[in-house]
Amino acid sequence: MKSVYKSHPWHGIPIGENAPETLTAFIEIVPTDTVKYEIDKTTGYLKIDRPQKYSNIVPALYGFVPKTYCGDTIAEYARQQSGRNDIKEGDGDPLDICVLSESNIPHGDIICQAIPIGGLRLIDKGEADDKIIAVLKDDLLYSKYRDISELPRSVVNRLQHYFLTYKNLPGEPMTCEIANVYGREEAHQVIRNSVTDYLNNFGML
């Protein structure tokens, strides 16, 4: 008998049989949103995190990879790859993902098939907070890119600028830094590590 209940976006949606090459992404916010939404971990519904007070607009579809978690394995891999021993832990959330597409997607709270091509190793107050960069499967413009090194430099710069400044208030010091920009193969390993962390923490679900 098929379930008559809505699946929890984090715990109930499969990551996909072909992950990490192609995976399911849950999109929370889109570039036209003037409010930052994020998943409520208890109910699975989108909630308002905060209004976008300033002109910093997310430059891609933004959400997370279901059935992933940024914990000890993610933190250890971040220390190993960056040479940074001050990375204390993962950020305790599902693995974040940006999905590039030329299409105008009007709202979040949707799932899509995404192809990871790289990532940004963001460090936020000593926590590993990786951002996987992906392209929408079969997108007419972006699906030709197989690795982040192939993207126009302006696209990568825009993504980096967003994540370096999206939590900043005027006059306050920056709390985020990007330790590495990495390619497709390393992104695949980050995804595998986040699945390991998920199973270690939520394997009983």
Task: Present the secondary structure layout.
Layout: E1 23-29, E2 35-39, E3 46-51, E4 61-64, H1 72-82, E5 89-90, E6 96-100, E7 110-124, E8 127-128, E9 131-136, H2 153-165, E10 176-183, H3 184-202
Parallel strand pairs: 5-8, 6-9
Antiparallel strand pairs: 1-4, 1-7, 2-3, 4-6, 7-8, 7-9, 7-10
Helix pairs in contact: 1-3
Explain this structure to me?
It is an enzyme of class 3 (hydrolase). InterPro entries: Pyrophosphatase, Pyrophosphatase_sf. This is inorganic diphosphatase. With 205 residues, the chain is an alpha+beta fold. The chain is built from three helices and ten strands. It is 21% helix and 29% strand. 38% of the residues are buried. Helix 1 packs antiparallel against helix 3. The chain has helices at 72-82, 153-165, 184-202; strands at 23-29, 35-39, 46-51, 61-64, 89-90, 96-100, 110-124, 127-128, 131-136, 176-183. The protein has a single domain (21-200), classed as Alpha-Beta Complex (Inorganic Pyrophosphatase), CATH 3.90.80.10. The longest helix is centred in the last third of the chain and has 19 residues, at 184-202.
Spatial strand order of the main sheet: 1-4-6-9-7
- Helix fraction? 10-25%
Q: What's the average pLDDT?
A: 93
First and last CA, distance:
20 Å
The number of helical segments is 3
What can be said about the biggest beta sheet?
A: 5 strands, mixed, barrel
Number of strands: 10
CATH superfamily: Inorganic pyrophosphatase
How would you classify the quaternary structure?
single chain
Our count of domains comes out at: 1
Share of residues in strands: 25-35%
Unreliable spans: none
Order of helices and strands: EEEEHEEEEEHEH
Helix-and-strand structural type: alpha+beta
What is the second-level CATH architecture? Alpha-Beta Complex
CATH class: Alpha Beta
Predict the CATH topology: Inorganic Pyrophosphatase
EC number: 3.6.1.1
Protein name: inorganic diphosphatase
Keywords: Hydrolase, Magnesium, Metal-binding
GO biological process, one term: phosphate-containing compound metabolic process
